Amino acid sequence: MTADSREDARWLAAAASLATRARPISRPNPGVGAIIVKQGKVVARGWTRATGRPHAEAVALDAAGKAARGGTLYVTLEPCAHESPRGPACADLVSASGLSRVVIGCMDPDPRTAGLGLERIRAAGIAADHLPSPACEESLSGYLVSKRLGRPEVTLKLAMSLDGCIALQSGESQWITGAQARAHTHAMRARADAILVGGGTLRADAPRLDVRLPGLELRSPERWVLTGGKAPAGWYALPSPEAIAGMDGVQYLFVEGGAGAASSFLRAGLVDRLLIYRAPILVGGQPAVRDFGLASLASAHGQWRITERRQLGSDTLEVYSRIPCSQE
């Protein structure tokens, strides 16, 4: 990688960090981040606003005004090429901006754009490059899964003891992990469009599943329960893990409990990401996961790769991503 491409990668990573501010309020649109740079300095920045408009590029260009001329736009996702009653195509805004260059971190799989955005920008005489960026793809993971697979990205959260238990044999489960780990869980809830528990967990614990962090209370996700029956007031019912394909507008689904729901999603092969909070205790109680149809011990290997590990007070957090089948 050249010095110039390293610089491009650095600015794309910065745009990806900005994009986190849009999640999940940009729903149903993807949360995108954009930065305009000129002579090594940030001229303007933007991220997708609530309900999906205005888009990140429009926000950044509006903030930059005439200062955008001659600058470089770094944007996490290819600027859209389709018109909407809610606003103009970003590819057209960029084409008329006077920018000298555009660098994107991820191509848009939406067939209405899918390369047409870059094509239109280049036709306007602006240099436009696609530099694949892991940071940008991670920031858009739910959107990419929804477009490619027709379902939300599924994160399964497990808070367990050292011996893999989520509760005592009596059912007592509050609290396995400490305050810092629980606060982190609430921050992860705030990044989800929807949160789900099994029917048994709902009946036994009556969980609130809201976000209880100062300033983020309004980011509480939709509440869903995995059940063949009706959902209580304020909840939505999901009859099976496979039915997530019908969760309208949901890009990020957070599955929080219990063992039955966790096992059902694992059995269906629908878990993309694991958040494992591990407390330094032994309880000899109820396991975090039940039988989910694993055929052999050998087939358990090569399924997951660790992407993050951190300490949260006395607890540890490990984050795993599923390895695509082509890499197994």
UniProtKB/TrEMBL annotation:
Domain CMP/dCMP-type deaminase as annotated: residue spans: 6-129
Keywords in alphabetical order: Hydrolase, Metal-binding, Multifunctional enzyme, NADP, Oxidoreductase, Riboflavin biosynthesis, Zinc
Gene3D superfamilies found in the cross-reference section: Cytidine Deaminase, domain 2, Dihydrofolate Reductase, subunit A
Residues the record lists as binding substrate: S173, R189, L209, R212, E256
Pathway where this protein functions: Cofactor biosynthesis; riboflavin biosynthesis; 5-amino-6-(D-ribitylamino)uracil from GTP: step 2/4; Cofactor biosynthesis; riboflavin biosynthesis; 5-amino-6-(D-ribitylamino)uracil from GTP: step 3/4
GO molecular function: 5-amino-6-(5-phosphoribosylamino)uracil reductase activity; diaminohydroxyphosphoribosylaminopyrimidine deaminase activity; metal ion binding
Catalytic activity, EC: 3.5.4.26, 1.1.1.193
Binding site for Zn(2+): H55, C80, C90
Catalytic activity: 5-amino-6-(5-phospho-D-ribitylamino)uracil + NADP(+) = 5-amino-6-(5-phospho-D-ribosylamino)uracil + NADPH + H(+); 2,5-diamino-6-hydroxy-4-(5-phosphoribosylamino)-pyrimidine + H2O + H(+) = 5-amino-6-(5-phospho-D-ribosylamino)uracil + NH4(+)
Co-factor binding comment: Binds 1 zinc ion.
Pfam families per the UniProt record, alphabetical: dCMP_cyt_deam_1 (PF00383), RibD_C (PF01872)
Cofactor section: Zn(2+)
Active-site residues per Swiss-Prot or TrEMBL entry: E57
Record GO biological process: riboflavin biosynthetic process
Binding site for NADP(+): A159, W175, T201, D205, G258, A259, G260, A261, A262, S263, S264
Recorded family membership: In the N-terminal section; belongs to the cytidine and deoxycytidylate deaminase family.
Known role: Converts 2,5-diamino-6-(ribosylamino)-4(3h)-pyrimidinone 5'-phosphate into 5-amino-6-(ribosylamino)-2,4(1h,3h)-pyrimidinedione 5'-phosphate.
PANTHER family assigned to the protein according to its UniProt record, in alphabetical order: 2,5-DIAMINO-6-RIBOSYLAMINO-4(3H)-PYRIMIDINONE 5'-PHOSPHATE REDUCTASE, DIHYDROFOLATE REDUCTASE FAMILY PROTEIN (AFU_ORTHOLOGUE AFUA_8G06820)
Name of the featured protein: Riboflavin biosynthesis protein RibD
